[in-house]
Amino acid sequence: MRSDLLVGAGVAAVMAAGAAALDHRRRRRAHVDAVGMVPWTGVQAAALFVAILLAALAVRAG
């Protein structure tokens, strides 16, 4: 397996976990009218897609 692709997949997975934590924080905010600028759900989905893609490429590369 290619270790550089696995490292990239790990970084993307950590980014997805961070986005999930920040999305959870956004949903539980005290001031409902204080909306954020970053769509954390979209960031999480994109990071998960990249993590899965890189992991699959690493496995396929052997």
Give the count of structural domains. Answer: 1
Strand count, sense and barrel status of the largest sheet are: none
Shape: rod-shaped
Classification by helices and strands: mainly alpha
Keywords: Membrane, Transmembrane, Transmembrane helix
Transmembrane segments: 37-59
Layout: helices, strands, pairs:
Layout: H1 3-27, H2 40-61
Helix pairs in contact: 1-2
What key attributes describe this structure?
62 residues; rod-shaped; transmembrane; transmembrane helix; membrane
Walkthrough of the structure:
Keywords: Membrane, Transmembrane, Transmembrane helix. The chain is mostly helical and 62 residues long. It has one domain (3-61). The protein contains two helices and no strands. Helix 1 (3-27) packs antiparallel against helix 2. The longest helix is centred in the N-terminal third of the chain and has 25 residues, at 3-27. The radius of gyration is 15 Å and the shape is rod-shaped. The relative contact order is 0.26. The model has no long low-confidence stretch (mean pLDDT 93).
What's this entry about, in short?
The protein has 62 residues and is mainly alpha-helical. Helices cover 76% and strands 0% of the residues. It has one domain.
